[in-house]
Structure formats: C-alpha cells, structure tokens
Amino acid sequence: MSPTSHPANPERPQYLRVFLTFARNSLVRDMTFRVNFLIESVAALSWMIANLGFYLLIFTFTDSIGERTGWGQYEFFVFLATTMLVNSVVQAFFMPNAQEFSELIRTGGLDFALLKPIDTQFLISLQRVNWSSLINFVAGAILLAFSVYQLVTRADNPLHLTPAAIILYPLFVACGIAILYSLMVSLAATSIWLGRNQSLYDFWFYITNFSRYPMEIYNGTFGLPLRWFFTFIVPVLIVVNVPARVLAQPLRPDTSLGIAMGLFGIGATMFCLAASRFVFRRSLLSYRSASS
Questions:
Q1: b/e burial code for range 245-263 (CB count within 10 A of at least 16 → b)
Q2: Dihedral Cα 21, 26, 32, 36, nearest 10 deg
Q3: What is the pLDDT of residues 175-184, one digit of tens each?
Q4: Which of 48, 70, 117, 271 fits as disulfide partner to 9, beta carbons 3.0 to 4.6 Å?
Q5: Under 8 Å between Cβ of 139 and 45
C-alpha cells in the first residue's frame, strides 16, 4: 500500500466531528491530572505577565518604540495581544502533535495513521489539544480589548475603528496561524528524512522569535536583510505585523499600502499552506514502514 493511500471507504469522514472528539478526549485527559493542568496554566500565564511587565517597564522611559513608527504603548499592546492570540492557538493545537511526529515514526505509530480512512495530515496535526495553552488566548483577548478601548477613548488623536478593520483583523490572525502551522508541519515532516528531529522546538523558537516584534526594529545594515528575508522568503514577520497594523494603526486597511500588505499576507498564507502540503506528502513517499 502506498504511504499516501487509504483503504476504500464509501463514507466521507466528518472532519469537524473527528476534531471535536480529539478535543474532548484531550480535555478529559487533562482533567484526569488536574494539578498538572493547573500548573501548566499558571506557568503559561506567568510567562505572559512577565512579558507584559517587561514592556510596561520600557514604556515608563519612552512614549513609543522607534521614531515615527506609531507604536505607542497601547498600539504595541495590541501587537503583543495579537502575538499571544496567534501563538496560543499554535501551541494548543499544533505544537504537541508536531513534537510527537518523530516519535510516531520511530515507534511505527505512523503505520496506523496511514491506514485510517482520513487525511493523514489532518490526523497527525490535530489528534491532541493542549488546553492549558489556551489560557494565554483568553489573556490576549482581554489585553486586546483593553488596549483598543484605550486607543478609541484617548483624548489626543483617538483611534477610529472601521468595519473593514474589525472584519480583517480576525481574518489576518487566522492567516498568521496558518503560516506558523505551515512552517511547523514542514519542520515536522523532515523527521521522516532525518529519523529523529528533537531540535524542532528549538529551531521553531529561533525562527518565530522574529515575529514577536514590529518589523520597524529590523533596520540598518543587518536589520534590513533580516526584514526582507523574514517577510518574503520565510514570511514570519507578517504573522503579527499585518493584523496588528490593521487594527491599531499605523497601517489602515483603506490605504494603498494597507491593501498591498493585506493581499501579500493572503497570498503568502495560500503559498505556505500549499508548500507545507507538498512537503508533507513528499515526505510520506519516502516513509518506510517500521515493520519493513
């Protein structure tokens, strides 16, 4: 049997129902060890609070990050909240599965995944949910709402939210999640060729660390090449920058630059998803059963 084929099944799998079953089973497993779940949630929340405290300290000495960039305190907190929303979803739904992919290859568990009448990439990507990571999603949503409220109600140059910005923000957040997921799937797929890819998380952290800051900080002799590379080659800079700019300024969705950035973000998302799908399927063609 080809590693990408599945047994004939007249019934099309109901992917939403399968995913909800995965999510429910993961929640039951987490609730079985409630103390561990609580510790993980507190640890994730503590890390977020420490980051927020660090930036609050920075803004006691300056009014904005960089000159003429428009990233004041609450604009940057919108950026920080967007980072938390994107990363919490990725860490909750995709990171645990990507980390276990090399173990499935080593133990032969991938054989059973290939035999199931469902898309292998879907099964590998979503079979486990780390619910404790979603605590940062809630915290990020609260920080986002508070920061936007401060921007809208400030006396000096208040933010005027447009319907386009409100609609486009969650769309581009979803695009950012899809880009990071594509990168993670591609990295995980290399386990088939490398045998074991224990450095996945470290490499993932190094790459995505560039997306945690506004792209204006990448300037000068060394910064501009980094900005170009991580925007057009490995597009992690647009993961947070595009949705945060749409919502908090300085990039408005009704300007030519805003439209160009938005179209590029959507195009980059589609390309990354297609490329990761190709890499994943190509890696399965190189897979040899653990029993062979």
A1: bbbbbebebeeeebeebbe
A2: -170
A3: 999 999 999 8
A4: 117
A5: yes
Burial class (CB in 10 A: 0-12, 13-18, 19+), 63: exposed
Find residue 72's DSSP bridge partners.
Answer: 64
User: What phi-psi label fits residue 162: left (phi over 0), alpha (psi between -120 and 50 degrees) or beta?
Assistant: beta
Distance, CA of 4 to CA of 237 (rounded, Å): 33
Residue 11 domain-assigned? no
Find the domain containing 23 and state its range.
16-285
How far does CA 26 lie from the centroid of its chain?
Answer: 20
> With 80 as the cut, is the pLDDT of residue 61 above it?
yes
For residue 6, being part of any structural domain is answered with no
Output 77 or 258, whichever has higher pLDDT: 77
Per the model's pLDDT, the better-predicted residue between 155 and 168 turns out to be 168
Look at the block and give the residue holding tokens 């779940």.
37
Closest alpha carbon to 291 in 144, 123, 105 = 105
188-203 pLDDT, tens per residue?
888 888 766 666 667 7
Spatial contact of 151 and 158, defined as CB atoms under 8 Å apart: yes
pLDDT, tens digit, for every residue of 89-105? 999 999 888 888 877 88
Query: What is the number of domains present in the chain?
Result: 1
Q: Is residue 8 part of a domain?
A: no
What pTM, to 2 d.p., does this model score?
Answer: 0.88
Higher pLDDT, 210 or 266: 266
